[in-house]
Write a structure and sequence with these properties.
There is one protein chain. This protein is mainly β. The protein has one domain: Electron Transport, Fmn-binding Protein, Chain A (Pnp Oxidase, Chain A). It is built from 3 helices and 9 strands. The strands form 2 sheets. The protein has a 7-stranded antiparallel β-sheet. A hairpin with a 4-residue loop joins strand 3 and strand 4. It is globular. It starts with 17 loop residues before the first strand and ends in a 19-residue tail after the last strand. Bound molecules: flavin mononucleotide. Flavin mononucleotide binds next to strand 2, strand 4 and helix 1. Keywords: Flavoprotein. InterPro entries: Flavin_Rdtase-like_dom, Flavoredoxin, Split_barrel_FMN-bd. One of its GO terms (molecular function) is oxidoreductase activity, acting on the CH-NH group of donors, NAD or NADP as acceptor. Its cofactor is FMN.
């Protein structure tokens, strides 16, 4: 194997495809596609999401300190692509797509009801890494489709057709 220098940008793959949903202080719901997302602590359970400050969702998460990570299935490709290419600054994406919403139990933010897993998070801290601000969210509650959960409460990812 002969190795030559590769591009540094996005050189780590695969990237997850999730939707982060949030609500502003006036009650407007929004969501965006996020690939910069990872587990960042096991105890306490925490997830990190990277949001570019120019996103409409950024200010919402910054002001409210909460967000929801929604796991997306192959069937939801269209919704994912729309939310990842249109800004809530110009329209109400939830009304436009007729997105069904459930309420968070621990956080004041919308859950995307048709996603099989919704993870409610409270921001514990953040770090500006460069293009993104990485928000470390403590997991407050996990909503899981009961068909996709094992007897011990673990999520059975073999049953989810991840996008
Ligand atoms: C596959 C994919 C991955 C994306 N990942 C991120 C990401 O990690 N962070 C981010 O800030 N934007 C990401 N985006 C872009 C936002 O989802 C997009 O700019 C969205 O329209 C912002 O919506 P908003 O302005 O309503 O917040 C991604 C888009 C796509 C299609």
């Amino acid at each position: 194997m002969e190795k030559i220098q590769g591009n540094m940008k996005s050189c780590l793959q695969p990237m997850p495809k999730i939707l982060v949903s949030c609500r502003d202080v006036n009650g407007k719901n929004n969501a965006l596609a996020v690939a910069y997302c990872c587990n960042c602590s096991y105890d306490p359970p925490m997830i990190m999401v990277g949001i570019v400050p120019s996103r409409y969702s950024y200010k919402m998460i910054k002001e409210t300190g909460v967000f929801v990570v929604n796991i997306v299935t192959k069937e939801q490709k269209e919704m994912f692509e729309y939310l990842g290419s249109h800004s809530g600054r110009n329209e109400d994406k939830f009304s436009k797509l007729n997105i069904k919403v459930d309420e968070g139990i621990k956080v004041n933010a919308p859950l995307l009801a048709d996603c099989p897993i919704n993870i409610e998070c409270k921001v514990e801290g953040s770090i500006v890494t460069g293009s993104h601000e990485m928000f470390a969210g403590k997991i407050e509650y996990v909503h899981a489709d009961k068909e996709m959960i094992k007897d011990n409460g673990d999520i059975d990812f073999s049953k989810i057709q991840l996008l």
